[in-house]
Amino acid sequence: MRCRESKVATLSRKVLERNRRILTKDLLSKLASLINPTPLAPKWTSIELLDEAIAHVKQLQQRVEMLKRKKQQLEDSKSTSFAVTDLESTVEVCLACRSNEKFILTRVIDVLEEEAGPVVAVSYSREDDKINYIIYSQAVYSRIGIDSSKMYERLKRLTAS
Q1: What whole-number distance in Å separates Cα of residue 76 and Cα of residue 86?
Q2: What is the pLDDT of residues 71-126, one digit of tens each?
Q3: Distance CA 28, CA 33 (A)
């Protein structure tokens, strides 16, 4: 009786081990297809494959970090933006900024009044945490006009800081 039980136990261990090897082989082939999905991928040993997988995951982590930094830079650069339209003796400035940016409007108006002329109209609209302003400034002397390039540069420096 004992001999039969040991043979059954040995057979079940052999079956379990064979199933484990088949499963491991299957998982390693799936891992290989994820790392290098081309059909002409090189044949790697299990250890080489695991090393490649580790290197691939580290590369993906670095890419995720780089993309997060890039996203943050884009969000930061979009925090304040403006456009200047020169309409002969009038200048239109469209300003978009976050609602938590205090005093940006007053500084833009100061620049407009110094470079262009008095501000004659301001309108605004609100979207989520953004405020969009449209500011009109008119030249004191319509024959002289407005030098919008210098004003643009000052606004650019102002919104960059």
Answers
A1: 27
A2: 776 566 557 778 888 777 788 888 888 777 777 888 888 888 888 788 888 988 88
A3: 9
Torsion region of 95: left, alpha or beta (phi above 0 gives left; psi -120 to 50 gives alpha): beta
pLDDT score of 23: 94
> Which tokens is 78 given?
């979009």
Query: What residues contact residue 62 under an 8 Å CB cut-off, 6+ apart?
Result: none
CA-nearest of 125, 115, 122, 119 to 147 is: 115
In sequence order, which residues have a C-beta less than 8 Å from that of residue 142 and are 6 or more positions away? Answer: 88, 89
- How far from chain centre, in Å, is Cα 75? 7
Residue 100: count other Cβ atoms within 10 Å of its Cβ: 8
